[in-house]
Amino acid sequence: MGDRCLCGLGITRCRLPWQVNGAAEETFLQDYHAALRQWQRKLGQSSAVLQDALERHRSDCLLSDPRGWLARHRPYPGVVERLRRCRHGGVDWVVITTKGQEFATALLEQGGLQPTAVYGREDGPKIRVLRRLLEQRQPVWFVEDRLPTLEQVTADHQLGGVGCYLAAWGYLRHADRQQLHPPARWLDHATFCAPFHTWPT
């Protein structure tokens, strides 16, 4: 499993208030969304307000110290090389992220990566972006690092043609692999870096 913080909604660099206040980690692991709603009520802050604050902070950092800010964000080993092979092999790939497009594009450029497109939070929910992509081309394979997001995609009848993969190095709880059901597939790091014909289907 990855060692990234267990925090959805794209708020991955914030210190969580529940840590400061000493709330039990187990509460968040058992029912993340209920625990998050509880602490948002205590803070009087919505997800949208927190996300907007984070995006403003990112933009400020990119303006004031772009090199220093980007240097704090490193890709997983092998991922950049794998995506470069996609490009060289004529495989179109896009980025769909809950982060702002400006920030995501800056990270990609830092790694010398040139996706076909970058869809940020400005483009709407990932499901909406996937629907548009599926209308334009097939097949579409979607690699996601959060099980709840992947479950939303597999439950959408309009996205039945999308191959869905849960990245083993993402925002995972220990129970997520057991809760993963077809048509979604588990994708470990080694398989991600391997040729596409070796991926589970």
UniProtKB/TrEMBL annotation:
InterPro entries the UniProt entry points to: HAD-like_sf (IPR036412), HAD_sf (IPR023214)
Gene3D superfamilies per record: HAD superfamily/HAD-like (3.40.50.1000)
Protein name per Swiss-Prot or TrEMBL: HAD family hydrolase
